[in-house]
Amino acid sequence: MSDEKIPIKDIKGLDFKCNACGLSLSYPLATQQTFINECPNCGIEWIPSQLNIESVRNLKNIFKILSNAQGANISLSFTKE
Prior knowledge:
This protein is an alpha+beta fold. It has one domain (2-80). The chain is built from 1 helix and 4 strands. A two-stranded antiparallel sheet has the order 1-4. The protein is globular and about 45 Å long. 0% of the residues are buried.
């Protein structure tokens, strides 16, 4: 395992892969206006009902604001297996 970083400005979208049926969907943050909270193939819930779609839109807006930050380069850190 190694620690990795990705600059916020390099995040182009959200990718979903269904744990039940394996369907994959990508949502480009620059153009996507709507998001779904369940798999369109098998119907399993992807985003808990208490985390509404507005929260995903807020995440999109946060990434946009942080990617335009002038005073610092902001990255997400994660562990890659």
